[in-house]
Write a structure and sequence with these properties.
Porin, five-stranded mixed beta sheet, 6 helices, 16% helix, single chain, alpha+beta, Rossmann fold
Length: 433
């Protein structure tokens, strides 16, 4: 008899396994959605499967150990294959906590965020199963139901969709989620923040609270029209984070002090039409004082000499790189007047347009380095195109001390009515506020 019972048990178990194999795979739902297609989170790349702990309890002493084994494993197999986005875990304790808080506590021990509870009453001839699932994250019950077939329950019955209501509940009510921590951001209205979410975040008021996946390291950029952008990085662990965006207004004015060819002093005053981006400026370069660091042109170096000429500029320009970068490129163009300020033979002052080349045009391009937002160092190349009336007089007037014998001047090109200075480079410092 003992051998016969063992053989029958083996047959029943084999039928159970074969029947469970007939349960086909279910189609996975989109990550981040539930049964009503409501988005759970907007960070799909951070989503993870749900973890569901299985509580199994027999309330009456009417089932054999084998019956309990068959029931437990058939439920476990059905629940485990119901939804690829849900991992079903066995409880570490066979005693089911009687309270909701107790179930939550036991679930947290194994990092579960949902639980499935099945209570069995009666015998295999008159089985009654009470079933419910609870989503700890949403604090919501799903699928509270009762299964009571009214006929004998055996391995064949269990393998033919007996627990389908459990599978349907898990399939329709649970999807992948993202663990998040709240980040509170304060700043000025209109601030646009990128790098935290899949789409840009914009402050309609002075603050916004955003749930972000954790743990993770975030690098963000906060931009506000007329202000320098803010680039920063922070680590988001398990505690909420507060970010205060303190934008610095982009510069509206600037003053430049420079040395033209590291010889002649100059100064510009700049007005930024678009803060720290588009500008107009006016300034001058004077040749009344010059520092010659190369010996041999006129006596001993360094030689301070004067040529009573000054170029008065008017420029417009634009930065090609965004504000806030350490290195920025810019360029533009403009025109200039060539002024003479001297004394006549009778000692009277002479001031006005220099007659041999009264005006000209100049493009310019430069690069600046900014260790601080209000202080920049720059190098600027600006060839000068003079409108000449008399080229010989222009040479004599511009280079009274160092005119070459053949009339050629290195770095200059002369045409019928124009002279082009290709060696005009300014090195200086720019103050912005």
């Amino acid at each position: 008899m003992k051998g016969l019972r063992t053989t029958n048990a083996k047959r029943l178990f084999a039928m159970l396994v074969a029947g469970l194999a007939l349960i086909g795979p279910v189609s996975a739902q989109d990550p981040g959605t539930n049964a009503s297609n409501e988005p759970i989170v907007e960070f799909a790349t951070f989503s993870r499967p749900r973890r569901m702990i299985f509580f199994f309890e027999v309330t009456e002493d009417t089932l054999t150990e084998y019956d309990r084994f068959v029931l437990y494993n058939s439920i476990m197999a059905t629940a485990g294959s119901a939804n690829p986005d849900v991992i079903v875990l066995e409880a570490p304790d066979t005693t089911v906590p009687p309270t909701l808080e107790g179930k939550h506590d036991l679930a947290r021990i194994i990092d579960a965020d949902a639980w499935l509870y099945v209570s069995i009453a009666g015998s295999m001839d008159d089985l009654r199963a009470e079933i419910e699932t609870f989503d700890i994250l949403r604090q919501t019950y799903y699928g509270a139901l009762t299964i009571q077939p009214g006929v004998r329950t055996d391995a064949r019955t269990l393998s033919r969709g007996f627990w389908d209501p459990i599978a349907e509940t898990i399939r329709s009510s649970y999807g992948q989620v993202v663990d998040t921590v709240e980040v509170r951001i304060t700043g000025k209205p209109g601030t646009r923040i990128t790098g935290l979410a899949e789409t840009a975040i914009e402050l309609a008021g002075t603050e916004i609270t955003v749930p972000l996946p954790n743990p993770a390291t975030y690098t963000y950029r906060a931009e506000l029209v007329g202000h320098y952008p803010i680039d920063d990085t922070f680590y988001l662990g398990f505690d909420s984070v507060e970010i205060e965006l303190e934008h610095v207004r982009g510069a509206k004015w600037g003053v430049e002090l420079y040395g033209n060819n590291i010889q002649f002093p100059g100064m510009n005053v700049t007005r930024y039409l678009i803060p720290a981006t588009a500008f107009v400026r006016t300034g001058f370069t004077t040749y009344a004082l010059g520092v010659y660091l190369v010996e041999g042109f006129s006596g001993n170096a360094p030689l301070v000499s004067g040529n009573p000429l000054t170029n008065l500029f008017a420029h417009t320009g634009l930065y090609f790189s965004e504000p806030g970068l350490d290195l920025r490129l810019y360029g533009g163009g403009g025109a200039f007047l060539r002024l003479v300020h001297d004394f006549a033979a009778d000692g009277g002052p002479v001031f006005g347009l220099e007659p041999t080349a009264p005006f000209g045009f100049t493009p310019f391009a430069g690069i600046e380095y900014s260790p601080w937002l209000s202080l920049r160092f720059f190098v600027e190349y600006a060839p000068l195109l003079y409108r000449t009336v008399d080229s010989d007089e222009f040479r004599a007037r511009s280079f009274p001390l160092h005119l070459y014998s053949d009339g050629r001047i290195p770095g200059y090109l002369f045409f019928d009515s124009f002279a082009l200075d290709l060696r005009n480079v300014a090195v200086g410092v720019r103050f912005m506020w």
